[in-house]
Every structure is written in structure tokens, then in C-alpha cells.
## 1
Amino acid sequence: MALLEGKTAVVTGGAQGIGFAIAERFIAEGARVVLGDLDPEATEAAVQKLGGADVARAVTCDVTSAADVEALVNAAVTEFGALDVMINNAGITRDATMRKMTEDQFDQVIAVHLKGTWNGTRLAAGIMREAGGGAIINISSISGKVGLMGQTNYSAAKAGIVGMTKAAAKEVAHLGVRINAIQPGLIRSAMTEAMPQRIWDAKLAEVPMGRAGEPGEIASVAVFLASDLSSYMTGTVLEVTGGRYM
Ligand SMILES: NC(=O)c1ccc[n+]([C@@H]2O[C@H](COP(=O)([O-])OP(=O)(O)OC[C@H]3O[C@@H](n4cnc5c(N)ncnc54)[C@H](O)[C@@H]3O)[C@@H](O)[C@H]2O)c1
């Protein structure tokens, strides 16, 4: 029996990387997905790669806009009849040391991660509480646990997602809505491939398992948190890091 048979999930930032891998794995487990991302062509191309309109739909969405996120979560209900799982995954980096980081670089990262996750969490929870339950998964980062050089904006946002996850989980636990977070470590994606080689090598040297993770290794943990396998878990943070910063 597939773990997410008949469920509908929304994935923000689902056109590529970790979000796309989550969508792919969810469909393999019997779910249908709605991808919300910035570029309509890239999002539609992702839908085609996932198997087309029977299993996936594209919605153009900037997670910093409450109106966009509202349209995204509503699309799950109108297109596929329900919203069972919400994945708040959309993200950006604007790395720079504090001396060089601009106010705009700080604000952009806070807006996409923190406001975006807040929009997704509260609007999905609003639908799920009426429906009698659901699972929300917020993608934080190990950077939010330990703080990383050049990421005062990103570390703050990703730590904030942990606090938000726990506060929100307490508000809706009695309504059957579970909210958990994942903290990925070094995962191979466009975000990390943009890194200079020497920074990649330095990060890799910190991983006890001796390798970077693949997006699919975040997706399988998302399946666990989305499914009834984790039915008694809420407000938790799962580190998926190959042992880095354990
Ligand atoms: N790759 C890693 O090593 C790693 C580690 C820890 C956490 N993460 C987190 O995982 C998530 C996914 O990252 P990824 O590595 O797949 O990166 P990625 O850059 O490959 O994908 C991010 C996606 O988010 C979308 N996006 C960006 N801003 C958006 C917005 N305002 N509204 C909607 N969509 C938006 C992008 O268009 C893109 O499709 C992010 O939250 C990231 O911070 C990644």
C-alpha cells in the first residue's frame, strides 16, 4: 500500500531541487501535487516531468505574497479536492558577511523563508482545521541550528522557522493538524552547486558520512512526516545531514 494514496500535497519552490524531489516521491507514493513557484514555464515543465495534469498542477506563486499563497492552497482544493499536506520549501540564499550584506539582502531572505513559511503554514492550517486534519512540513536548515558564516540572514530565517513550527504546532494539534520541520545539511541542488569549490569541500569535510545528500534523501523524510507513519509527531525538527553538526 502506497504511503500517501489519495492525498493532495502543495509544494512551494517545487519546480526544481528538493521541492521537485519531494513532489516526485509523493507521486510515487500515490499522492497528487500542486507546485507553487516563481517562473510559470519552469513550473509547468516540472509538472510535465512529473507525469502531467493527472498527478500534478502548476501555480505561479511568490510565497512572500499572502494572496499568491492563498490562491495556491485553494488550487489544491479546487483542482484535486483537498489539501492534506503542505510543504513550505521555497528558498533563496543571499550570502555575505555582515560587513558586506545589504539591508535588501537581509530583507529578501527573511521575506522568502520566514514570511513565506508563515503564509503557507497559516493558510494551509486554515483549510486543514476545517477538514479535520493534515500535515505541514517546513524546510529549515542546519544553518538555523548552528549558524553559518556569511548567513546571518539565512541562519536567522531558518532558526525562526523552527520557532514558528513549534508555536503553530501547539495552536492546531488538537485539530488534527501536525506541523514538523526538516533541517537538511549539505544537499546537492542548484542552491549548493552555485557555491565555490573550496566552500563545498570545506562543508563536505564536516560530514561524518563523507558525502553530500541527494534531494531524494530529504524527500523520503518528508514522506515519513506527511504520512501516518509519524501520526504521533508534531512540533519536531528532523536533522537530515549525514551526521553533520549532530
Ligand atoms: N540544498 C541544500 O543543501 C539545502 C540545505 C538546507 C536547506 N535547504 C532548503 O531547502 C529548500 C529548497 O532548496 P533547494 O536546495 O532545492 O534550492 P533550489 O534553489 O534548487 O530551489 C528553490 C526553489 O524555490 C523557488 N523560490 C525561490 N523564491 C521563491 C518565492 N519567493 N516564491 C516561490 N518560490 C520561490 C525557486 O524558484 C526554486 O525553484 C530551501 O528552503 C533551502 O533553503 C537546502
Note: The first helix runs from residue 17 to 28.
## 2
Amino acid sequence: MAVDTDHLGTRIRLADLWADPYPIYRELRAREPVAWVPAANRYLVTRHREVVHLEKHPETFSAAERDSLMIRVMGHTMLRKDGAAHARERAAAESVLRPRTVRDHWTPIFQRNTDDLISRLYERGEADLFREFAGPLAATNLAAVLGFRDVSAADLQEWSQAMMDGTGNYADDPQVWRRSETAARGVDDAIDAVVPYLRRSPDSSLISAMLHAPDPLSIEEIRGNVKMFIGGGLNEPRDSLAVGAWALLRHPDQLAAVLADPSLWRKAFEETVRWVAPIGMYPRQTTREVELGGTLLPAGARLGVVLGSANRDEEVFPDPDRFDVSRRHNNHIAFGGGPHFCLGSWIARAQVSQVAWPTLFGRLGGLEIVPAEPVRLGGWVFRGVLNLPARWRP
Ligand code: HEM
């Protein structure tokens, strides 16, 4: 059989992307910046300039992907809509996540949650900071932002993971569908439990905002978007928290610089999400035939917008594989671009760089990675550390 050796994309295996996508991305950027990758069943767009370009043209590069598994799992959320339908749902949630609201309202809540969690771990002198700190903290913070009551961090993490696995269930595994359907029912029940109260007594939460917006969302719309907030607002802060803590612990000179100048926490955050983009790839679909990065795409072509690669594009970032908090002009696109630019970017920055890291490194003296158990990383659609065994002096 003739193997298409001229086309790099045809040789790419998902398992290799999962293990370490960066060498593959480097080659794609150099040789085939818009490449058909049969294993992913889409064209991968790997250079910064094409990603920025396509986000400026949402009429040609649509977020409303055909046969979207996300829609199957979560319902039709704002993330899979274009134009006015998208703008209406986004507007209903926006006020809750603005920088000033984040600073005045949410940051003190994130600080309380962080202090509580660290107090519970402190005496032990060791923990897996990924599983026992980053995950539960991101979940507890998100529960508050959503307006949930009596939902445990463990439930929220299970729902998030089960629904994310569902949105990636291209193998059509019935067990994965069952778990994601159970999760979706759990979310619907949690929404039903708070809606009567929030209708009577509006508060600062997302569910309240969507109920009381000038153009309020229906319960069906709220259900879909809350699922999307759980899928997109938990794992990413968790992963940036854990990856950044790990990177700083591995670079003591950079950690010392940040501890000496707290204004650098923010730069450490931007560098962390550039270096390992928590959302490594998201989908788009062409609405017409169009040329992109030298490749002619037919109408209806499915694209993978590879932020994990664009953020390491050597044309934009000198020495891109290096973690460097002092990097100048960090023009990363870890939060996307265009109409779907991440709504939760200020929430993420506040909880990770203003609260979690300064509290973690401030309270846990002598914090270090336990050398016996290597830190593992995985993923390309979503990427982060999978464990972070650490110890400190109680
Ligand atoms: C480091 C943390 C985070 C990263 C790297 C991140 C990244 C992204 C990216 C790349 C997108 C665009 C996806 C696309 O266009 O298909 C996005 C959209 C979105 N994000 Fe985030 N996100 C983070 C945290 C959060 C948090 C904490 C929340 C909410 C509490 C959130 C809520 C959303 C929402 C609602 C959208 C969809 C916006 C729309 O469709 O208009 N994100 N995020």
C-alpha cells in the first residue's frame, strides 16, 4: 500500500501526541502548518499566525461544529454557537466574571477556600498537590462562582471529568456515554435545587445572572451552559495551578525572583499557560472553501486549533520550549481569541496567581517535590501534570 510519506500528518498517532506533542508540533509548524491528520479526523492548525487569523474570521471558521459530541453531552451551549445567538448567552453571564467583580467579590472567597484547604493539609507535611490541592480547590471555587449549594468538590470533579470524557468519546464507548449521562443528570439536579431560591433571592453567582439577565436564559440554556462552565472552568485552573507550581519548584532561581517581587506571580501565570496550554486544541469548521497557511480547505472541513503549538511558535516566542517567567512580550493565546475568548480568564488568574500560589509558597515552608515519585504529564487536547507529590516542613 502506498503510504503518504510526503505528508507528515498521515503518520501522526494520537498516543504520541498524548505523551509529548511538542516535537511533532515543531515539525508540523515547519513543514505543514495546516495538516490533514487522519488519526484526529481533522486538519491541525499549528502556527500562531493562522490561529490568530482564523479567530478574526468567525464567519468562515465557525464554532458550530457538525456532529459535535459536546452538544450530545452538554446540550447546545454558547461555545458551539455563532453570531447573535452566541452573543446573547455570553452577555447573560459576563458581568459575574469581569475583572472588578473578580477582584472585589470572588478573590476574598478564593482566599478563604485556599486557606481552609491548606490548613487541612498542613500538619501532614506531604500531599499530592495535584489531586489533593489543585483539583479540590478549583472545584470549590467553581461551585461558589456557579451558585451551587451542597455540591461536594468530589462530585463536581467527577461531573467535569465524565463530561469531558464524553465530549472526546469518538470511540463511541457505551460506558463513557453512561458515565457522562449520569454526570449530566447530577448537574441538572444540582441546578434544579438552587433555581427556586435564586429566582427569589438573586446573588452574584452565574446561575443567578443567567436567570435575571435583561434577556434571561431559559432553563434548558442554563443547563447547557452550566455544564460547559463545569467542563471548562475546573480542569484548566487546576492544571495551570499544578503545572506552574511544578515549573517554579524545578526552577528555584525563578521561584526566588517571584517570591522577591510579588508582581511576578502574574507573569508566572501567563508563562505557565503559554508553556503548557491547558486547552491544547479546540475545534472549528469551515463554512466555505478557503485557503489557510498554504492548504486549500474544502467547505465543511473540521479543524483542530492547536493552541499548545501556537504558544510555542518560534516565530513569536524566542526559545519557546523554555519556561521563563521573565519572558518579554508574552503574546500567548492560551485563552483563545475572537468571539469565544475565554470568559473565565480573570477568574483563573485571580484564583491561581493571586491566591493559590502565593498562599501555597508562603505557608508551606521548605516546599519541594518528592524525588522518589516522578511527576508525569499527559494530554494534547487538554494537557497538564497527572500528579504532583510534594512535601514541606509542618
Ligand atoms: C487557565 C484557565 C483557563 C484556560 C486556559 C481557558 C481557556 C479557554 C479557551 C482556549 C477558550 C476558547 C475555547 C473555544 O473557542 O473553543 C475558553 C472559553 C471559555 N472559557 Fe475558559 N479557560 C480557563 C478557565 C476558565 C474558567 C475558570 C472559566 C469559568 C469559570 C472559563 C469559562 C469559559 C467559557 C464560558 C468559555 C466560552 C466562552 C464563549 O463561548 O464565548 N474558563 N477558555
Note: DSSP finds 16 helices and twelve strands in the chain.
